[in-house]
Every structure is written in C-alpha cells, then in structure tokens.
C-alpha cells in the first residue's frame, strides 16, 4: 500500500522533474529530518483516515511537547492537524499518553511492564468500537519518543494498520559531546561557531535550543555535554552554571540531561586551593560543594565528563594517583545526587615510548574493578583516534567489571570536514558488530557497551557533535545523517545502518524511490570511498599536522613522534606498515586470544587492516594475486573513482529536491572529488618515492611532483584545537 503511494508520488515527481520543475519551496536544511512537508496526495488521504482526531493532554511539559509535535507534524504532513478531543468519537483517533495520565489508555490494559522509563508502545487498538492508534509510555518521555516514532512512520510512508511496535532503548546514556569552547569556537567543529550563545545566556534563550532539543529527542538522545573536553575551569563558576541551567530548563521537557566537562585542576584555578590531589580532603570538600551547587541549579544534572592526563590536561597522575582515584573523587560527590562520571580512556603519555595504540589498554586494564559504581569509562571506538578505519579498541571486552561507554566522533575531523559526503553509519556498524570474543563467539562490541555481556545496568554511547551555528546545523545536509544515525544506533546498536540511511533520506529529502535508492547506495559506499582515497589497507593518521586537513604522509613538523604520519605508516624502501605483532609492538596480543591469533598472522589479518598490524614488503602478495604496491595504488585510485561516481549519481538527481540543497551538495561533491584526487596523488607520489617502484600499468601518474604537495600549507583551517 505505502509502496504504491510512494510509486505514484515518484511518477509525479519524475514528471515534474522531466518538465524541468524543481519543487518550489526553498530549503536551507534548518528543519533537519523533522520537515513535515506535505505528503503526496494519496498517502495523505490514507494517513488522514487513520489520524482523524487527537486525544492527547498537555498537562506536563513533556506531554505538552509530545502533543505539540504531533500537531505540528500532522498539520505539515497532512495539510491540517486533526481536531483535539477528550475522548474517542470516531474511527482513526490517535491517543497519546501514559496509563496514569489517560483513563482511555488505562482501559486498554496494555502490558507496559517492560518499557522502563523511556520505552513505548505504538499499537492499533479498538476503543469504544472505533479503530484507533495508541501511543503509550510508562512515563511522559516514552510518550514523546513514541510520538516522534509515529510521525516517522508517516514521514517514511509506512502503513498505519496492525501496528504493534514496542521500543525500549538498549543503551541507557545516549549522549552528544560538544567540544564547544566558552569563547564560541568549536574544537574540530566545521559548522560555524558554538550554538551556545554563552555571552547572552541566561537572559536570552534562543528558540534554536528548543529545535535542537526536538531533534535530539526525535532520535532518543538523552544527554548533552555542553563544553569541550579540553575544559575551561570557568564553566564551573556561578555565572556559567546559571547559563548551563538555562539550557537545562529548555532541554528538560525533552528528556535531555545536561553534563559538563570539568578540568581536573579547577580547585586550584577557581577554588583558590594549592592542590587538586584527589585524595586531599580540601579538594574533596571543594568538589562536593561545587557539585551540590550544581544540583541546586539543575536537579536533573547528569554528571561530569573528564579528560585527564592526556594531551596536556591535568589529572590525578600529577599527584601520583591513578585514573581510578581521579574518577572516584567525582563519583563520590555525584553519587548522592544520582549523577555519573564519564572518564575518558583517550590517554597516551608524553613520555612513554610504547606504541600509542597500546597505551590506553596498558593504563586502564589493570584498573578494572577499581572504579566506583557510577563511573563509566568512555573509550574511543579505535585504539588511536577516530581514523577512517581502525580495529575496535582492545579495551572492549577486556574490562568486564567496568561499564565501558562508546565514544564515536560524529564531526568529521579525519573524514573530510564539512564538505566530504561520508556517511558514518557503516563505520559505527563495523565497530559495534565486531566480535571481541571476550566471552566466546558473539561477544560483540555492541554487547559490551549496551551492558548485556557483563551485566551492567549502566551503559552509554557518546558522539562528538557536528553541530554549529550554520543554518543546516552540521555544515552540510548529508552531515545531518551522521547525527541521525548516531542517535538511532545509541537507541539500538543492532539496527541496520542501511535502513537508517533510507529512513533519513525519506524524511530529509524525498520518498521518491528513484531518489531514495541511488542515494542510499551512494551513502553506504561513501565511507569506504574515503578510506580508499585517504588511508587504505589499514593505514592511519596521514593527515596534515594539527589541523588534519589534507594529506601529509611526509610531515615531521610536530614535536611528538606519535603526532607524525611516518610514525604510523613506517614506509621505507623495503616496505610499509606498523608491525604490531609479537615481532613488533605486540599490540595484537591486547585482544582476546582468537582475535590476537588472527591479527598476529599476516595471512589471517583482514586486508582492510593489513598495514595497521603488519609491516610488509612492497612486493607482498595480496589475496588478489597482485602486489601490495599495486593494491595500494589501486585503492587510492578506486577512492577517486567512487567519488566521481557519487557526483554522477547526484547529477542525475537534479529536480527531485529543492534547488538550494541540491546545489549545495553538488558543489560539495566537486570539492570532495578535487580533494580525493589530491589525497590520491599526494600519497601515491610520496609512497612511490619510498618504494622506488614504477607505477603499475594502467594507473595515471600524480598530477604534480611530490615537492608540489609537500609545499602546500594552509592557514585559518577551521576547527583547530585550542591547546
Ligand atoms: C583528537 C583531537 C583533539 C581532541 C582529542 C580528544 O584532534 O582536538 O582534543 O582528540 O579526543 O582527535 O581529546
């Protein structure tokens, strides 16, 4: 049925397109996936008969938000909002509420016992002799989540009959981490400046904060860290806490808790103490008072995120204490209020000569069991740093007594900034579905972080936000999909990212099959394309120094060895790759034995990770029968070809969506093609100089000599770090 409507809509749009008519409405991406633009006539007619009246109260702020969203969505999608009613008087009523809030819902005797606080059911029911759809939560927030889900069914053209949907989030804390500085800049942000207008808060509370909260609630995000992990102690001063509290008030009806990044040395910087030693009673007292002060302003405050003893940040090791001592200091002052500590495992030492990929594990694994109950260890998906491809971090599965929280990067620091079209769903899915083998087959990363493998009630997933003041929020329309897929996977890490891409496209652009299908394919292939033109076959960290823009595999300008690309690729005349097997740094043995065995064996290591784990000669025979050198060149070339194909796909889609968003993506794809070519050519030129080998036949030589690529330098690159 729904398919039928979509096809009809598709035919009509194709007709419009063939007549050269683009949809008239100008769009700038601000509405995200909550556009609620009118559905095609026949689908709207079908939906209208199933949404003919709305029974929903607005007695609490959250139920008011749910009702407002349903009215707004239905008005937009169907042309007019259904009339509000106190009871069911005709077929096609939508009833939204909780058993406690709605006598009508109580009459249904639905089993809500397994829904928890945030779950919901959407069910086709009969009430007083009329067919109706009930959207029911145990708690108000479930009603809001269910309302967004119901609207998604309409937005994506799903049938509305025989509904029997039950949803419960698998992960408890679903958090966006903003790397926003108090001066308005955003570390690794490529979408303008911070959306938090700190200067004008708390007096001016921009309506944009409400739209931000709606977008987050629509995908189940329930926590927001407002400020950068490289934290400024000032965030804990009364003036800033008032500002944070104003934001918390906006977010509260949407089920979103505010968290803050804190600077370990804050007791010295803003408290006038001489030390920040976590075992010092004065320090403990200072944090206790500060925490109590925060909870007075924000009774539902979520807790603290801490980056300590990493990249110059202060931490417990400054006082010869452990990370557990540091985390427990915060855990103890937060516990009486129900707050949590998200302690970051992104730690590598200034002084250690050990492989950087091993250091987080070496540091934290021995501390398993030493953290208090309300501490989550927040672990980046890979052992190094958000590269286009890394193996999963060996910490997953290795610390059964500690809840491990996933940290993904949504902002594309290493994946083409704002302009490259790279859908991160496949990257996230690859990590979540990786088997750690920690407790035998099926111990996937997803089961570690949702708490099911080790029986943790506390679980979490964080994403480094890609949001800024740009009208489209994320620096490009397609980057919105990365915010979206993060939220959907945090709700349920087992979802298919292809299905998520499809629903996002339908909501964001069009339900037309002729548009949806090629765009899903383009998105699904985009991450592999980026891996190919940047860091194929397990290479990593070849980006420009500091700003991470463009290729610089030759660069040695930064002071630390492990900030320089040659540290990672180790290319020389003989071969390329980082030996992390037993003959090398032995990082492979940080994994569970069966995984370690395959990573230690060059023949068993997936070729996608070959150079991550092995240093191999240029003439090493790949599974294809070609040499490594051939395959390296082929992958770089394939990446560029894929981007060219993405551009062609997009060229065929002119007319299916509004002209403004169409043109922006077209322009960004041409930037991406140019930069993919630059990546390929610069890397091939450099590695060719290393290998001394001729280019395999059939491959075009780089457009410029290596010296040209090496001579490029960039100024005012966006998103640079503040430290
Ligand atoms: C790196 C970023 C840096 C961050 C750091 C972190 O380049 O700006 O501060 O991660 O996660 O990827 O702390």
UniProtKB/TrEMBL annotation:
<feature type="domain" description="Glycosyl hydrolase family 67 C-terminal">
    <location>
        <begin position="474"/>
        <end position="698"/>
    </location>
</feature>
<keyword id="KW-0326">Glycosidase</keyword>
<keyword id="KW-0732">Signal</keyword>
<feature type="domain" description="Glycosyl hydrolase family 67 catalytic">
    <location>
        <begin position="154"/>
        <end position="473"/>
    </location>
</feature>
<dbReference type="Pfam" id="PF03648">
    <property type="entry name" value="Glyco_hydro_67N"/>
</dbReference>
<dbReference type="InterPro" id="IPR029018">
    <property type="entry name" value="Hex-like_dom2"/>
</dbReference>
<keyword id="KW-0119">Carbohydrate metabolism</keyword>
<keyword id="KW-0378">Hydrolase</keyword>
<dbReference type="InterPro" id="IPR005154">
    <property type="entry name" value="Glyco_hydro_67_aGlcAse_N"/>
</dbReference>
<dbReference type="InterPro" id="IPR017853">
    <property type="entry name" value="GH"/>
</dbReference>
<dbReference type="Pfam" id="PF07477">
    <property type="entry name" value="Glyco_hydro_67C"/>
</dbReference>
<dbReference type="Pfam" id="PF07488">
    <property type="entry name" value="Glyco_hydro_67M"/>
</dbReference>
<dbReference type="InterPro" id="IPR011395">
    <property type="entry name" value="Glyco_hydro_67_aGlcAse"/>
</dbReference>
<dbReference type="InterPro" id="IPR011100">
    <property type="entry name" value="Glyco_hydro_67_cat"/>
</dbReference>
<comment type="similarity">
    <text>Belongs to the glycosyl hydrolase 67 family.</text>
</comment>
<feature type="signal peptide">
    <location>
        <begin position="1"/>
        <end position="26"/>
    </location>
</feature>
<keyword id="KW-0624">Polysaccharide degradation</keyword>
<protein>
    <recommendedName>
        <fullName>Xylan alpha-1,2-glucuronidase</fullName>
        <ecNumber>3.2.1.131</ecNumber>
    </recommendedName>
</protein>
<comment type="subunit">
    <text>Homodimer.</text>
</comment>
<dbReference type="InterPro" id="IPR011099">
    <property type="entry name" value="Glyco_hydro_67_C"/>
</dbReference>
<dbReference type="InterPro" id="IPR037054">
    <property type="entry name" value="A-glucoronidase_C_sf"/>
</dbReference>
<keyword id="KW-0858">Xylan degradation</keyword>
<feature type="domain" description="Alpha glucuronidase N-terminal">
    <location>
        <begin position="32"/>
        <end position="150"/>
    </location>
</feature>
């Amino acid at each position: 049925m729904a398919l039928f409507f979509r096809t009809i809509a598709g035919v009509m749009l194709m007709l419009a397109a063939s007549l050269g008519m683009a949809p008239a409405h100008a769009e700038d991406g601000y509405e995200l996936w909550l556009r609620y633009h009118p559905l095609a006539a026949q689908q709207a007619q079908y939906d209208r008969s199933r949404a003919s009246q709305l029974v929903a109260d607005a007695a609490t702020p959250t139920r008011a938000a749910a009702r407002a969203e349903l009215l707004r969505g239905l008005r937009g999608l169907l042309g007019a909002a259904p009339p509000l009613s106190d009871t069911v008087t005709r077929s096609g009523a939508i009833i939204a509420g909780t058993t406690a809030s709605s006598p009508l819902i109580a009459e249904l005797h639905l089993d809500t016992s397994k829904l928890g606080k945030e779950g919901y059911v959407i069910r086709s029911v009969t009430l007083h002799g009329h067919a109706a759809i009930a959207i029911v939560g145990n708690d108000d927030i479930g009603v809001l989540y269910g309302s967004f889900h119901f609207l998604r069914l309409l937005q994506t053209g799903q049938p509305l009959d025989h509904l029997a949907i039950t949803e419960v989030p698998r992960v408890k804390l679903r958090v966006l981490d903003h790397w926003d500085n108090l001066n308005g800049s955003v570390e690794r942000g490529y979408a303008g400046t911070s959306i938090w207008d700190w200067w004008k808060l708390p007096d001016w509370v921009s309506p944009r904060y409400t739209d931000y909260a709606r977008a987050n609630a629509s995908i189940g995000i329930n926590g927001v860290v407002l400020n950068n992990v490289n934290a400024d102690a000032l965030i804990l001063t009364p003036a800033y806490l008032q500002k944070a509290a104003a934001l918390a008030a906006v977010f509260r009806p949407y089920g979103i808790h505010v968290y803050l990044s804190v600077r370990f040395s804050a007791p010295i910087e803003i408290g006038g103490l001489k030390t920040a030693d976590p075992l010092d009673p004065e320090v403990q007292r200072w944090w206790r008072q500060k925490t109590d002060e925060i909870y007075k302003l924000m009774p539902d405050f979520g807790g603290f995120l801490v980056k300590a003893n990493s990249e110059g940040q202060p931490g417990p090791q400054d006082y010869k204490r452990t990370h557990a001592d540091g985390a427990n200091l915060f855990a103890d002052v937060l516990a009486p209020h129900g707050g949590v500590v998200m302690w970051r495992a992104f730690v590598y030492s200034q002084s250690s000569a050990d492989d950087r990929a091993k250091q987080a594990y070496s540091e934290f694994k021995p501390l398993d069991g030493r953290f208090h109950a309300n501490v989550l260890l927040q672990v980046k998906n890979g052992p190094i740093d958000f590269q286009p491809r890394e193996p999963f971090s060996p910490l997953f599965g290795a610390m059964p007594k500690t809840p491990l929280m996933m940290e993904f990067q949504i902002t594309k620091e290493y994946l083409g900034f704002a302009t490259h079209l790279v859908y991160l769903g496949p990257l996230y899915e690859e990590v979540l579905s990786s088997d750690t083998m920690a407790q035998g087959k099926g111990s996937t990363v997803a089961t570690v972080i949702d708490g099911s493998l080790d029986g943790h009630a506390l679980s979490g997933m964080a994403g480094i936000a890609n949001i800024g003041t740009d009208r489209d929020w994320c620096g490009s329309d397609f980057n919105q999909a990365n915010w979206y897929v993060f939220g959907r996977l945090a709700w349920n890490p087992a979802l298919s990212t292809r299905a998520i891409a499809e629903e996002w496209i339908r909501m964001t652009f069009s339900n037309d099959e002729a548009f949806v299908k090629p765009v899903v394919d383009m998105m699904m292939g985009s991450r592999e394309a980026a891996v190919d033109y940047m860091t194929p076959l397990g290479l990593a960290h070849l980006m420009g120094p500091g700003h991470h823009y463009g290729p610089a595999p030759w660069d040695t300008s930064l002071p630390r060895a492990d900030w320089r690309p040659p540290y990672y690729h180790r290319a020389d005349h003989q071969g390329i790759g980082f030996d992390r097997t037993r003959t090398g740094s032995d990082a492979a043995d940080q994994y569970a034995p069966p995984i370690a065995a395959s990573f230690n064996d060059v023949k068993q290591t997936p070729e996608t990770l070959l150079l991550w784990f092995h240093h191999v000669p240029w003439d090493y025979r790949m599974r294809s029968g070609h040499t490594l050198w051939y395959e390296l060149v082929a992958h770089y070339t394939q990446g560029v070809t894929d981007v060219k194909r993405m551009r062609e796909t997009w060229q065929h889609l002119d007319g299916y969506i509004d002209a403004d968003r169409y043109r922006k993506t077209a322009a960004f794809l041409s930037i991406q093609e140019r930069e993919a070519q630059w990546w390929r050519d610069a890397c091939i030129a450099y590695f060719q100089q290393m290998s001394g080998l001729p280019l395999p036949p059939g491959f075009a030589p780089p457009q410029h000599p290596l010296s040209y690529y090496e001579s490029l330098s960039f100024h005012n690159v966006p998103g640079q770090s503040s430290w």
